[in-house]
């Protein structure tokens, strides 16, 4: 279920965190961990395991490369890019 408003301000002590982890849930989940109206990042993943796949839209955007290889560039733009790279 979605977290209620201002839940990010709630501080969990060691015992509460341990109880949440014992249930297999993520004690570090935030209100913004929502994708398409459904909660994400709800399951507990130990820190020593590999990082989970990006789940939030911001993470997906940062995981995608920002540079497009020249082979995938639009041919009409390649001439402009080559012209700019030639020193004057």
Task: Summarize this structure as a short list of keywords or feature phrases.
mainly alpha, single chain, 88 residues, globular, two-stranded antiparallel sheet
Give an account of the 3D structure.
With about 90 residues, the protein is mainly alpha-helical. It has helices at about 15-20, 55-65, 75-85; strands at about 35, 40. The protein has a domain at about 1-50. It has 3 helices and 2 strands; from the N terminus they run H-E-E-H-H. The protein starts with 13 loop residues before the first helix and ends with a helix. The mean pLDDT is about 75.
> What is the tally of beta strands?
2
- Beta-strand level of the residues, as a percent range? under 5%
**Gyration radius, rounded:** 22 Å
Strand order of the largest sheet: 1-2
Topology as a string of helices (H) and strands (E): HEEHH
Shape estimate: globular
Write the layout of secondary structure elements.
Elements: H1 14-22, E1 34-35, E2 38-39, H2 57-63, H3 75-85
Antiparallel strand pairs: 1-2
Brief account:
The chain has helices spanning 14-22, 57-63, 75-85; strands at 34-35, 38-39. The chain has 88 residues and is mostly helical. A two-stranded antiparallel sheet has the order 1-2.
